[in-house]
Design goal:
The strands form two sheets. This protein has a five-stranded mixed beta sheet with strand order 1-8-5-2-3, with no helix packed on it. The protein has a five-stranded mixed beta sheet with strand order 4-10-9-6-7, with helices on one face. With about 170 residues, it is an alpha+beta fold.
């Protein structure tokens, strides 16, 4: 076998391997923040419950950047408020916005480091491909301080996170 044919064989093998590795990532990215096809799960979480689009009282624009930041990174809402987050990815790589408690986000981030191509689709998260827009509709029915983060492997660890302060009714 000539050196040139060995190089071509190696190149073909490398490309096949890369396509195999990239396949799951493309499936993860394909959602791109689109609304789920299945009925929305209405599971009570410590930070609230999936909201009904008809009950939205406020829309909040959130930007994701390749500098591993959210704009804004601090959000204030009132208990009982149903918010629609319109999440715009200003970067060139996949990002996501996931709502939760610090403990939940830390645990989920650890799993994402071990399984970076893991697929998940919950009403409190949106995956947004480069230049895309996603949304979350969420009812903050419990007061407290909660977080949001991008849990793509390495992003959370680089500081891509923010805080949501939910004030008690009447405050």
């Amino acid at each position: 076998m000539t050196r040139k044919s060995q190089m071509n064989r190696w190149t073909a093998w490398t490309l096949a391997l890369l396509v195999g590795v990239a396949g799951p990532a493309l499936a993860h990215e394909a959602k791109g923040g689109a609304a789920p096809a299945a009925p929305l799960k209405k599971e009570q979480k410590d930070w609230g419950i999936a909201g009904d689009a008809k009950a939205v009282t406020r829309t909040i624009q959130v930007e994701l950047t390749d500098q591993m930041r959210f704009k804004p990174d601090r959000i204030a809402v009132k208990e009982g408020e149903t918010v629609k987050f319109v999440v715009k990815n200003r970067g060139k790589m996949l990002h996501e916005m996931v709502l939760g408690t610090r403990q939940e986000l830390d645990a989920h981030a650890a799993v994402m480091l071990k399984h970076p191509n893991m697929e998940h689709d919950e009403p409190y998260m949106t995956h947004v491909k480069a230049g895309g827009i996603g949304q979350i509709v969420w009812n903050f029915n419990r007061p407290g301080e909660f977080q949001f983060a991008c849990l793509i492997a390495g992003h959370y660890q680089s500081g891509m996170a923010g805080t949501i302060q939910v004030t008690q009714k009447g405050e």
